[in-house]
Amino acid sequence: MYRLILLTLCLSACSRLAEVGKSPDFSPLEGSYQHHAMYSTPLPHDIPPATPADASSLWSANRESLFGERRAARRGDILTVVIEIDDKAEMSNTSGRSRAGNDSMGIPSLFGIPERLNEKLPEGASMADAVETRSSSAYQGQGSVSRKEKLTLRVAATVVEELANGVLRIEGQQEVRVNYELRELIVTGYVRPADISRQNEITYDKIAGARISYGGRGQITDVQQPRYGQQIADVLLPF
Q1: Which pTM was predicted?
Q2: Sequence spans of domains, the chain
């Protein structure tokens, strides 16, 4: 067991040592849903039927025409996702509790038994005041939560799947590398074609099952994270 743990730590350390002095690599697009949607052959029902148009008319049903529909509607199309999150939450709780109790019990007379017992008890003791207890407790708690998040981003996403009910599944990924730090933004979810604006944009609040991830990896992120040993100790130690 110890050898297995030691081997795992060694392999993890070797993989990290291989990245020393190097910039983090970009995630490959080959093999992803976006890559498959872009390069796959359109299905027959994906291609709109050709409609004859007058040569002198400005109107044409083609997507490339001046008045054509340019919103994302088929697999492989691209649209822009607008993410503008400005959330703020504040919560404050105060609770208090107090309790006091006083109990006493005595047997002054019971078929003459208490009188007989009093003779055998130490001086000053009496069954008339056999038991007397007092208790008190007090509790007071106070807690507060203050959270504020603001995020403004725009990312291009690809329609990777058309569902039977007309809903589109989208997936977008954006990576920006500055020196030795890589910032990545990932957006996935389901959208209705009717919610896509004429500018071929959709806001994040209209994406069902939205999964938005904004983070990074590189030297700065690595320094900000606690070491593996510390993370394991935080999980295992009960105090």
Answers
A1: 0.57
A2: 24-43+65-90+147-236, 93-144
